[in-house]
Amino acid sequence: VRDAHGRILLITRANPPFRGQLALPGGFVNREESVEDACRREVLEETGLKLKRIRLVGVYSQPGRDPRGPTCSVAYFASVRSGHVKGGDDAREAAWIANWQTADLAFDHRKIITDALRLARHS
C-alpha cells in the first residue's frame, strides 16, 4: 500500500521471525477464505486500514525466504478505502514509511516493494 506522498505502509513485527523489524502487512489464509480476502483482512487487522482496489504484484516462493519453512506469498498493490493507521494483531506498530529503501526489512519484502513500484510505474 502506497500513499499519495509515495510512502509505503509497513508494520513493525511483534512476533518472530524478524521480531521488531519492518515488514509488509500480511499473514496466512484462513480456511474457506480467498487469498484476496485474506489480504484485505490482514491489512485491516494489522494496520486499521480498509482496502479498495487490489492488484496482483506477484507470487514469491524462493526457498529460504521464511526461516519457518517453505512459504509462498501472494503480493498485491492496494489502495486505501478508509481508516486510520494503527498497529494491531501481529503488528506492534504500523506507519507510513518514506525511507523504506534504507530500512532493515524482514523476509524478501524489499524485493516485493521494488516489484510493486515497478509495476505501478508501467501501468
Properties at a glance:
single chain; 123 residues; alpha+beta; 3-stranded antiparallel beta sheet; two-stranded antiparallel sheet; 21% helix; 31% strand; globular
Characterization of this structure:
By secondary structure, the chain is an alpha+beta fold. The protein is 21% helix and 31% strand. The chain has 2 helices and 5 strands, in the order ββαβββα. It has a 3-stranded antiparallel β-sheet, with no helix packed on it. The chain has a two-stranded antiparallel sheet with strand order 3-4. A hairpin with an 8-residue loop joins strand 1 (8-13) and strand 2. It is globular. The two termini are 16 Å apart. 27% of the residues are buried. The mean pLDDT is 96.
